[in-house]
Amino acid sequence: MAGVLLGLALLAFWLYSLFDVITTPEEDVRNAPKALWLLIVALLPLVGGLFWLARGRPQAAAHHTPRQRQPGRPPRPAPKGPDDDPDFLRELDRRMRGGSDD
């Protein structure tokens, strides 16, 4: 029974590490290219995952600092929800008042 639990824990850790490598942006990966980290974690489940967490994963502080904008690239517009879009609100108001042409 202990062997099964240990095997499941190893599988869960391996899947977590693999998913973490895949979802980490290329520019945040440390010490090696993302593709190499993917191979290391995929081929060496326990050791590769431990190395990824210690040497490849972005540091915690990196997630909280704003990224530098690349020269020549315009800044991204902030995401806009439907309740912030004046055209959407006008259309919604028109529909609620019964002026639907659909």
Tell me how many strands there are: 0
Q: Give the count of helical stretches.
A: 5
Binned strand content: under 5%
Average pLDDT, all residues: 83
Anisotropy-based shape: elongated
* Low-confidence region ranges: none
What Rg do the Cα atoms give?
Answer: 23 Å
The percentage helix is 55-70%
Secondary structure class reads: mainly alpha
Q: Could you describe the largest sheet, including whether it forms a barrel? A: none
Oligomer kind? single chain
Our measurement of the CA-to-CA distance between the termini, rounded to an integer number of angstroms, reads 64 Å
What is the chain-wise order of helices and strands? HHHHH
Biased composition (Basic and acidic residues): 81-102
Organism: Nonomuraea muscovyensis
Pfam families: PLDc_N
Protein name: Cardiolipin synthase N-terminal domain-containing protein
Structure description:
With 102 residues, the chain is an all-alpha fold. It has a domain at 1-61. Helix content is 59%, strand content 0%. It has 5 helices and no strands. The chain has helices at 2-23, 34-43, 45-56, 60-64, 86-96. It starts with a helix and ends in a 6-residue tail after the last helix. The relative contact order is 0.10. Residues 61-102 are annotated as: Disordered. Pfam families: PLDc_N. It is a multi-pass membrane protein.
